[in-house]
Design a protein that fits this description.
With 262 residues, the protein is mainly α. The chain has 12 helices and no strands. The longest helix has 25 residues. It is globular and about 50 Å long.
Amino acid sequence: MEILLGFVIALAISLTGVGAGSMTTPLLILLLGVSPTTAVGTALTFGWIVKVATVPAYAFRRQVNLRVLVLLLAGGLPGVVAGGLLLNKMKNGPYQGTLYAILGILIVSTALFHLYRQFRPNPRPSNNDRSPLLPWLALPIGAEVGFSSAGAGALGSLLLLSLTPLKVVEVVGTDLCFGLGVSFVGSMMQVSTGNYDAALLFKLVIGGLCGAFTGSFLAGRVPQRPLRFALLTMLVILGCQLATHGQPKAQAHVDAILAPAR
C-alpha cells in the first residue's frame, strides 16, 4: 500500500507539477492513519528526496539564479524553522484538533490557489527588479512549508515572476532549489525530533522513484490540464476532510478535562 501510494504521488507530481507536500501529508493522515507531525516530517523528507533528482539538471544548464536563490533562502530558512517549531509545539495536548484544522485549511488554500492559476493567463516575468523584497515574502512561505510541508512550489514561482526579471526557465530552476532547501531543513528538523516514520519513508521512496521514472516517460503524452484540475479538486476535498478529522478528538479531550468538574 505504501509503495503504491509513493508511486501515485510521484507520478502525479511528474505529470501535473503539484507539490509533493500538498499531496503526501493529507494522504498519509487520512489513508494510513499517520499522526499530523509524523505525516509532515515524512512528507518533507519524501519531497526533498524526489526534488534531489531534478535540481542538478537545472544547475548544470545554469538555469538557477544564485543571487535570487540566496535572497529566497534568507527568508525561507528562518520561516521553515519557525513553522517546524510551532508544529512540534502543537503535536501534543489539546491542540490536536486545531492542528488537523490548520493543516486542512492550508492544504485547501494551496489547492484553491493552484486552481485559480489554472483559469487565469500565465503571468509574465516582471520587468522591474524588486528582489530585495524576496526575503520578507519568503518568510511566511517557509513557515507554511515547515508547518504543513505544502506551499513552496506555487507561491515561490509566483514571487519570482512578480518581483524579478528572470526568464521562465530560471524561475522554475531557482524555485526548485528554493523548495529543495526549505524542505531539506524542515525534514532535518522533524527527523531530529523523531517526527517521521523511517519504514514508511523507505517504502514511499521506492514507489516514488518508480513513479517519477514513469511520469517522465508519460510527460507530454497525457493531457495535463484536465488531470491537474481533477487532482486539485481531490486535494480540496481531502483538505476539508482533514480539517474536520480531528474535531472528535478535540471534543473528547475537552470532555475529559471538564468531567471532574461535573
